UniProtKB/TrEMBL annotation:
<dbReference type="InterPro" id="IPR034786">
    <property type="entry name" value="MAR"/>
</dbReference>
<dbReference type="Pfam" id="PF00465">
    <property type="entry name" value="Fe-ADH"/>
</dbReference>
<dbReference type="InterPro" id="IPR039697">
    <property type="entry name" value="Alcohol_dehydrogenase_Fe"/>
</dbReference>
<keyword id="KW-0560">Oxidoreductase</keyword>
<feature type="domain" description="Alcohol dehydrogenase iron-type/glycerol dehydrogenase GldA">
    <location>
        <begin position="21"/>
        <end position="163"/>
    </location>
</feature>
<protein>
    <submittedName>
        <fullName>Maleylacetate reductase</fullName>
        <ecNumber>1.3.1.32</ecNumber>
    </submittedName>
</protein>
<keyword id="KW-0520">NAD</keyword>
<dbReference type="InterPro" id="IPR056798">
    <property type="entry name" value="ADH_Fe_C"/>
</dbReference>
<dbReference type="InterPro" id="IPR001670">
    <property type="entry name" value="ADH_Fe/GldA"/>
</dbReference>
<feature type="domain" description="Fe-containing alcohol dehydrogenase-like C-terminal">
    <location>
        <begin position="178"/>
        <end position="352"/>
    </location>
</feature>
<dbReference type="GO" id="GO:0018506">
    <property type="term" value="F:maleylacetate reductase activity"/>
</dbReference>
<dbReference type="Pfam" id="PF25137">
    <property type="entry name" value="ADH_Fe_C"/>
</dbReference>
């Protein structure tokens, strides 16, 4: 591991600040408070979208009792459009007045797709570190292309975080999902829409994620580390929900939509390389991360990924050279602190493809 050093004093630039209302309930065991939160929202005919691999569904369904109008268990990454359409039809047929999602970003994403069409309020119970529950961003996939957008109708009204629900999250989901959260942090740190609060949230999220992840790799049920990683996801999602996404996320959406790759795995592989690309423009953010990631944050991330047993090459995820070229052509114009043309971006993606160190 590279040597870590203290951060220099923070320089505060002029900024605009605006926050959107969301109620967040955080703590072990607090899934029991979901019925009271549903009552607070005035929900009587709820559609529960529950990932059956995540714990808590049975408890939640029993606790909600008569408030439930429809149970939905079919969930898929990147939200296929035909799945979203069927879920919207079912919500209308059952006259539901609100949505409760329990699961990772895929369960939240389906609730968002329904809310986009219907305007129904969402109460989210996240069980990974994707952070979707705090953003107005949605995504849907059809004909191997992912469409993303931003709409306040999809931002959940209430989020209930219960770290106990993540105790059984397997290491191959925990590690990449932590990197998905850290990808939000970097997007927020270098966004033109950043402000001192989004940057502070992002820095503390990286601190908490980099402290918690190594603990969880050896002790998956460590309560403090599970809480620390979910806290990081909360901060990271809040920051991303204010600043929006950029090149890193666009690359992952293009790869995920075309190839059906695991979203979090793709973020984990690509992130160190995009951090390296943007390092020359990192005077404002890189020194703040030195205490947690060492003097070169890109290398620090790459070493953390390797040390945690995460995938570090796109080839093993199923990407091909042809796809890399298509993705580079598609996303090269995306605004980024260090502008990048198609050949340069293809070279970056090729390094990610081969599992090379970021540079
Ligand atoms: N809109 C946004 O702001 C945003 C942000 C991040 C991710 N996303 C989207 O979310 C999706 C990915 O979310 P994800 O990475 O959380 O994956 P996911 O929701 O598909 O979950 C990953 C796997 O873990 C399982 N799982 C979830 N919680 C579990 C638990 N507690 N215990 C055991 N198994 C559990 C799931 O069944 C699945 O097999 C993608 O479609 C991505 O685009 C959206
Ligand atoms: O909801 C989506 O599918 C698009 C937004 C998203 O996935 C954010 C991310 O890349 O983590």
């Amino acid at each position: 591991m590279t040597t870590k050093s203290p951060a220099p004093p923070l320089r505060v630039e002029p900024f605009d600040y605006e926050a959107r209302p969301v109620r967040v309930v955080f703590g072990p065991g607090r899934i029991t408070e979901v019925p009271a939160e549903a009552d607070r929202l005035g929900l009587h005919r709820i559609m529960v979208i529950a990932d059956s691999r995540a714990p808590g569904a049975a408890v939640l369904l029993e606790a909600l009792g008569h408030r439930i109008s429809l149970r939905w268990h079919e969930i898929a990454q990147h939200v296929p459009i035909e799945l979203a359409e069927r879920a919207v039809e079912a919500a209308a047929a059952n006259d539901v007045d609100g949505l409760i999602s329990l699961g990772g970003g895929s369960a939240t994403g389906l609730a968002k797709a329904i809310a986009l069409d219907t305007g129904l309020p969402i109460l989210a119970v996240p069980t990974t570190y994707a952070g979707s529950e705090l953003t107005p961003v949605y995504g849907m996939t059809g004909a191997h292309r992912k469409r993303t957008g931003t709409d306040e109708r999809v931002r959940p009204a209430v989020v209930v975080y219960d770290p106990e629900l993540t105790f059984g999250l397997p290491p191959e989901v925990t590690g990449p999902s932590a990197f998905n959260a850290m990808a939000h942090c970097f997007a927020a740190l270098w966004s033109p829409r950043r402000d001192p609060l989004t940057s502070a949230l992002a820095v503390d999220a990286v601190r908490s994620a980099t402290e918690s992840l190594p603990v969880l790799m050896g002790d998956p049920s460590n309560v403090a580390a599970r809480s620390g990683l979910q806290y990081a996801a909360f901060l990271a999602g809040t920051a991303l929900g204010r600043t929006g996404t950029g090149l890193q996320h666009k690359i992952c959406h293009e790869l995920g939509g075309r190839l059906g790759l695991s979203h979090a795995d793709t973020h984990a592989v690509v992130l160190p390389h995009i951090v390296a690309l943007n390092a020359p423009a990192g005077a404002d953010w890189a020194p703040r991360l030195h205490p947690f990631l060492g003097p070169d944050p890109a290398v620090g991330l790459w070493e953390l990924a390797r040390g945690s047993g995460l995938p570090t090459d796109l080839a093993s995820l199923g990407a091909s050279s042809r796809t890399l070229r298509e993705v580079a052509e598609e996303v090269a114009g995306t605004p980024n602190p260090v502008p990048v043309d198609t050949p340069a971006l293809e070279a970056v993606l090729r390094r990610a493809m081969n599992g090379e160190a970021p540079r």
